[in-house]
Known about the structure:
Chain A is mainly beta. Chain A is 0% helix and 55% strand.
Amino acid sequence: DQQVKQNSPSLSVQEGRISILNCDYTNSMFDYFLWYKKYPAEGPTFLISISSIKDKNEDGRFTVFLNKSAKHLSLHIVPSQPGDSAVYFCAASDISNFGNEKLTFGTGTRLTIIP
Amino acid sequence: EPEVTQTPSHQVTQMGQEVILRCVPISNHLYFYWYRQILGQKVEFLVSFYNNEISEKSEIFDDQFSVERPDGSNFTLKIRSTKLEDSAMYFCASSGFIAGGPGYIRGETQYFGPGTRLLVL
């Protein structure tokens, strides 16, 4: 039951260019979305989040866009840097679990920044 | 910056043995979670814990699993009789208080520990 999908298992981007990572979801009860970055043998590191009442949230080089009607969100990284090379997970939580923020994760996209 | 810590970083055990994975959540957090990631698969929710009781658990979290907050700082996951398929990375996470109301933007994020790699032989 893939409620959160990341259809691109990998992505390669030139350093300095924009990286765009995509995520789709099926559960209309999801109301809070997060992006995590993960290096091998480490835990997921929180990057940025967005509530369903917004369509954009920006934090430095990272911007997350949410299209509720399409059940789609994307993470933009600009400019991309070599240190951004990692696996990026999209995650979502469900309004019906208010106060108990179980996260449903996508399968991840491995981003490689080419110097 | 406060962080979630986990011990041990690696654990090798024989099938049928009991293991206890330990976590120290961020000190002022109130919600605690365990997730796992089998090699090559996605991160999966196991259990959430609040106010000294389980809030929710997944299908994976069967009778072989238990969680405990034995003191004010530690949060443990016990697997009573390990199976080969329990081999995975286990991540602890914690988050702060989540207030709410119409239009409230939830800002409380789950912060993850570095994980314990469990290998069952």
